[in-house]
Amino acid sequence: MAAPTQISANKCFGGYNRRYKHASSSLSCDMTFTVYFPPAADETAAAPSKVPVLYYLSGLTCTDENVIQKSGVQRACAQHGIAFIAPDTSPRGLNVEGEADSWDFGVGAGFYVNATVDKWKNWRMYDYITKELPALLASSFPTLDTANASIMGHSMGGHGALTIALKNPGAYKSLSAFAPICNPCNVPWGTKAFSGYFGEDNKELWKAHDATELVKSYSRPALPTLVDTGSGDSFLEVQLKPEAFQAAADAAGFPVTMRMQEGYDHSYFFMASFIDEHVAFHAKHLKA
Amino acid sequence: MAAPTQISANKCFGGYNRRYKHASSSLSCDMTFTVYFPPAADETAAAPSKVPVLYYLSGLTCTDENVIQKSGVQRACAQHGIAFIAPDTSPRGLNVEGEADSWDFGVGAGFYVNATVDKWKNWRMYDYITKELPALLASSFPTLDTANASIMGHSMGGHGALTIALKNPGAYKSLSAFAPICNPCNVPWGTKAFSGYFGEDNKELWKAHDATELVKSYSRPALPTLVDTGSGDSFLEVQLKPEAFQAAADAAGFPVTMRMQEGYDHSYFFMASFIDEHVAFHAKHLKA
């Protein structure tokens, strides 16, 4: 596993946003990611200490940079002493025919699955997020306590966070999402992605990456979960379907705090407004 | 004076970012600006109340959108009940020959002056910020207490805030800046802009828009002033020269809090790290 190379660093709230590039074995291309190191865990600290990590999975079209620039998450991460991990959303630069034809499929739209359709064989974001990246962080950054991790995400990344946490019991201390795609098997974004990456007939695989399906059979350990969606989100009814996840969770006895935030839309302005609460939620469970 | 037309609105920290377009008489083109209305002063509030305003002048290449998306200023403005006014940085769309040849002159680089060189006769950002925009806000938005105003800015906009406040005693309750160009007559960005907008020989006009010159003769009323610059700012020595402003202020007996923030650079990450302190500083003086 090749060590990541730092490509930029910006001091922020006493810590540093550090952006890295590395050759990904899962995806067979170079990938970038950013880690926000809170003050105590940065290499510039007098006596750096180990801190928990919070993975953040981004939405369609995003890179690692959007949330780093627009959410203001560093403030709360500095306060609570949590490292924030922002990966990219798909392989890039592979020149697969048609990879950039759509903004909701291919480049920038990995949906956090391992594709089984041969054409998209390098789209293995599930392995990248659940295996390669944690191992890379553990081997590269001694101040990251990668065994003490939580996960969150936005939109497509909310789908990613929900499904990855539900499929890996015990791997994450807590889970949260902003405006997640809750039931991809039944919405246009999800059916387009799953048809493309898994094939139209592979419905069992579709269900294996659908949070509303996965929550039905989740047993333990407890997975504290917080979901915020905006009532003014233009994707709410057609793409997100939080009510489907809520109903399935309730039927399964899976406790989840689902909040509808009056008037908020799908943007980073929505996320910025509640990111402090999400980080505080994760901090409580990471420190337990 | 034509009323501004709203072109977007995003709920944020309980209030709204509202972006407007209007036909500017000072600049002879359409201009955009964004107002962040804190919860109590937004049109959606049950009983909207009047709030003070904080003008923010942006740096080179920026529009009104950068600070709205990247600084996280809305959080503190919501908390203190202050409206945040983000104008653009120059006229746009006038098709003056060469207007977009440089990133530090012409479009996106108005330097908050009224140009006297005929070719740039529409570059009247000083009038726009000090006269047209306040009048437009006063006539268009009943919840803005435009007589209760403070001003701040970043880089070129820090120069703008310093010079505009010093040239208009009593117009602003307080003044702050991030990484301002403090002595434009003596740095490359400033001499290029002033040569272009005023002509090479018009040195008295240059001095009339140089904070280090203006502070020498500022008398009253008291103008509480806070300036933050990062020690890791790559423009610090060649373009910013805070030490020149500090020396002139000290010699003139003008009280200013000038802070050097260890390791911070010129980016919005620097600004985001201290924006709460700047808003709190202005809130104290606006409420006095």
UniProtKB/TrEMBL annotation, chains A, B:
Please state what class of enzyme this protein is.
hydrolase
Q: List its EC numbers.
A: 3.1.2.12
InterPro entries according to UniProt: AB_hydrolase_fold, Esterase-like, S-formylglutathione_hydrol
Instruction: State the UniProt keywords alphabetically.
Output: Cytoplasm, Hydrolase, Serine esterase
Q: What is its main location?
A: cytoplasm
Catalysis performed (reactions): S-formylglutathione + H2O = formate + glutathione + H(+)
Keyword Metal-binding set for record: no
Query: What protein name is recorded for this chain?
Result: S-formylglutathione hydrolase
What is the organism of origin for this protein? Tetradesmus obliquus (Green alga)
Mind giving the lineage of the organism this protein is from? Eukaryota, Viridiplantae, Chlorophyta, core chlorophytes, Chlorophyceae
